[in-house]
Specification:
There is one protein chain. With 336 residues, the protein is α/β, with parallel strands linked by helices. It folds into 2 domains: 131 residues, 2-Layer Sandwich (Nucleotidyltransferase, domain 5); 170 residues, 2-Layer Sandwich (Nucleotidyltransferase, domain 5). Helix content is 42%, strand content 19%. The protein is built from 10 helices and 10 strands. The strands form 2 sheets. It has a 5-stranded mixed beta sheet with strand order 3-2-1-4-5, sandwiched between helices. The chain has a 5-stranded mixed beta sheet with strand order 8-7-6-9-10, with helices on both faces. A hairpin with a 4-residue loop joins strand 1 and strand 2. Helix 1 runs parallel beside helix 2 and helix 8 runs parallel beside helix 9. It is globular and about 65 Å long.
C-alpha cells in the first residue's frame, strides 16, 4: 500500500491542495485569485494575502472530499520553489504547522519537477527517457527526463519565458489579464501568417523571447500611429501571427533536441501546454519525426497541487524528506 499525502501548492496566484493515496490523485482543489486582473499581472503582496485567506478552506475541502482524516496522512508536501517568495512562504508555513501538529514528515517539491511529473497522474504515461518541454509564465525549458526524480536541462530561456511573452503581447494589445488564453482564443479565427515579427536567434537549445516582445511592441506602436484602430480591426490575425511565431520558436528547439538525442518520446508541461496552437504543432512535429506525444489534462497544465502530490509520492518512496528549518526558494534549479 502506497503513502497517503496531502500536497499544497502556493507558488504564484493559485492556492491549491490535493490528496494522493497509493499513487492515485484523489482530488485537486484550486482557488484562483481574481484580484490581479485589474492590475494586468500578478501583484506579489496581494497574492500572498489571498493565499492566507484561501489556504485553510482549500486544505479542508481537499481532505473532506478525499474522505481521509488528517491523522491518517503519512506526510505533508509543499512547493518549495521556484515562485513568489511571499506566496511560497504561506504554503510552506502551513505545511510546517500541520507537520508539527500531526507529527508527520515534510516533503519539499520543486514546482518545475512537479509540472513534468503531472504526466504520471493519468494514462497514458511516458516511459524513460523522454523529452519534456516545460512552458509557463516564468519558465521555458527542454528537459531530458531519465527517471521520476532525475531530470537534466538541455536548454532554457536566457531572458523571458514564453508564457510571459504571450501575456505581455496580450497586454500591449489591450487584452485583460491573463491574456495568453485570449490570444489562443482569437488566434483560432485569424491568419497565422498575416504579420511577421523579428526574433533573437540563440545557439544550441536555449531560447530568448525578449527580442520578439520588443518587435511586437514596436510593430503595434508604428501601426497605431498610422491607424488608431489597427489592433481592433486586425485582432484575430494579430493573435494568430503572434501565437504562430512563439509556438514556432518552441517547436524549432524541440525538434533540434529530438534530432540531437534520438529520443522519440516527447511531452509538454506547464501553463502554456494548455495552448491549442502548441498542442497542434506538437502533434504535427510528432508525425513528421515519428514521435509519441504526451500532453497532460488541462487541469494539470496550470499550477495545481495534483502535480505536487504526484512528485511527493515519488519522493516519499525514495525516502527524501525535508527538515523543519527549510526555507522557500524563489529560484530553484530543477536539477537540484
Amino acid at each position: 500500500m502506497g503513502p497517503v499525502i496531502l500536497a499544497i501548492e502556493s507558488s504564484c496566484d493559485e492556492t491549491s491542495a490535493a490528496v494522493i493515496s497509493n499513487g492515485k490523485v484523489l482530488n485537486n482543489i484550486i482557488a484562483s485569485q481574481a484580484v490581479h486582473q485589474k492590475y494586468g499581472g500578478v501583484v506579489p503582496e496581494l497574492a500572498s494575502r489571498a493565499h492566507q485567506q484561501n489556504i485553510v478552506a482549500v486544505v479542508n475541502e481537499s481532505l473532506t472530499v478525499s474522505g481521509i482524516r488528517k491523522e491518517a496522512l503519512d506526510a505533508i508536501a509543499f512547493t518549495r520553489g521556484p515562485g513568489l517568495m511571499g506566496s511560497l512562504l504561506v504554503g510552506l508555513s502551513f505545511a510546517k504547522g500541520l507537520s508539527l501538529a500531526l507529527k508527520k514528515p515534510l516533503i519539499e517539491v520543486n514546482h518545475m519537477q512537479a509540472h513534468v511529473l503531472s504526466h504520471f497522474i493519468e494514462e497514458p504515461r511516458p516511459s524513460f527517457p523522454f523529452l519534456c518541454l516545460t512552458v509557463s509564465g516564468g519558465h521555458t525549458q527542454i528537459l531530458r527526463v531519465s527517471d521520476y526524480l532525475q531530470m537534466e536541462v538541455l536548454g532554457e530561456t536566457q531572458d523571458d519565458a514564453a508564457g510571459e511573452a504571450f501575456d505581455k503581447a496580450a497586454k500591449i494589445m489591450g487584452l485583460p489579464y491573463p491574456g495568453g488564453p485570449l490570444i489562443d482564443k482569437y488566434a483560432r479565427q485569424g491568419n497565422p501568417k498575416a504579420f511577421a515579427f523579428s526574433k533573437t536567434v540563440m545557439p544550441g537549445l536555449d531560447f530568448s523571447f525578449s527580442g520578439i516582445k520588443t518587435s511586437i511592441l514596436y510593430f503595434l506602436r508604428d501601426r497605431k500611429k498610422e491607424n488608431p484602430d489597427f489592433i481592433e480591426q486586425h485582432l484575430n490575425d494579430l493573435c494568430a501571427s503572434i501565437q504562430h511565431h512563439l509556438v514556432g520558436m518552441l517547436m524549432e528547439k524541440l525538434e533540434m533536441a529530438i534530432l540531437q538525442t534520438g529520443i522519440r518520446q516527447v511531452a509538454i508541461a506547464g501553463g502554456v501546454a494548455a495552448n491549442s496552437g502548441l498542442r497542434e504543432a506538437l502533434q504535427r512535429l510528432a508525425e513528421e519525426r515519428h514521435c509519441k506525444v504526451y500532453i497532460p489534462a488541462f487541469e494539470y497544465c496550470t499550477d495545481n497541487a495534483g502535480m505536487v502530490a504526484m512528485a511527493a509520492h515519488f519522493k516519499y518512496i525514495s525516502g527524501e524528506f525535508a527538515d523543519l528549518n527549510i526555507a522557500p526558494l524563489a529560484r530553484m534549479p530543477i536539477e537540484s
